[in-house]
Design a protein that fits this description.
There is one protein chain. Helices cover 35% and strands 23% of the residues. By secondary structure, it is of the alpha/beta class. A hairpin with a 2-residue loop joins strand 5 and strand 6. Helix 2 packs parallel to helix 3 and helix 8 packs across helix 9. The longest helix is centred in the middle third of the chain and has 41 residues.
Amino acid sequence: MATDTPKMMPNAGLAEDAQRLRILLVEDDDGDAFLVSELLAEADIDVARSTSVGEARAMLASGPAPDCVLLDLGLPDAAGLDALTGIRAAAPGIALVVLTGDVDRARGLAAVAAGAQDYLVKSNVDEDLLDRSIRYAVQRSRAESASRSLRDAERAAEENRRLERGLLPTLLVSHPRLNVGARYLPGRRRALLGGDFYDAVQTADGVVHALLGDVSGHGPDEAALGVCLRIAWRTLQLAGAEPDHTIAVLEEVLLHERHDEDAFATMCMVEVDCASGTLALRLAGHPSPIVVSGDGRAFVVDVDEVQRRPPLGVSWGTQAPLVRMRLEPTDSVVLYSDGLTEGRAAGGRERLGDDALCAVATAQARRMPMWWADPTTLIDATIAAVQDANGGPLSDDAAMLVIAQRPDLDAVG
């Protein structure tokens, strides 16, 4: 006669062994349940019982999860593979052994095809076979789970690599007097890239155009918007668009592509012209770039508030005033996102800030006088010093792009 409440079946030596297996027997027949209890009496297995699929699902939901479910296919609320499907839906990765009175081999094979690790016929089961089948099922289930986790991790790693290749551009600069490098560092909360974006291209007149921006927020939507803005910017530069037109188009792209009507993007656009020795820049709510002089001294380009426009998406149609300054033949230009300056300064709670970032960059540039040959060495050293001052990884994404003049090739035009 079937009972209505879950029971723990008696088992020898149940207590306190963390390595013991725990199974959930789903069986409505008291005689068959007693038989299972007797067959497992000498095994290191604890048995809990339910008498229906619904009751079993409730027990699986409330936990702790057993190592294996021993399932009869003829139950009051489900018969045949419906019972198996019901358990699978409640606990997709759990080991499951079908224990049935049905001697039909095809039905047993169908149960295995539907997700069971094994099936046993009640009339042919003894204690050794039952114990072995349960343990093999648990091991197979764990192996399958580990294999799935490995495949998922490999798939995710490949997707991440492909995503990062799409998000991070190949800088289109081949100039006899300039070396260009960039880095993107995701914040500690994410393994993937976020809303920061950058790019650099060289036009036919030899001028190098560079961009570094930051979309508000974090996540895949912001990353996708950053990619849209970067690609639009590159296309416009290669097409010879004027800066004011470029900014207007980028703002229109942002307004159409943003998922949140409050989303905005800051941006710094620069042009480095070695022939005339000038730096031209436009800012839209973004930090001013840094110049690193030939002796390694780093300083922030002084830009008045009236020479800045608000971020894209905040003040539609506003132009970004042109700021132009003289570049010495050994000066280099550094663009960065505020993720670097929002980290903590060494030994305190204060934010690092632009001036402290300049001090860090100065120290690293003077420590590596040939850094200009590979600008990423200065970027990596600066980021490492900022992280050290912060006491660990930065909480926000950080990006840096450096356009370095080659002091040993000044004579080359």
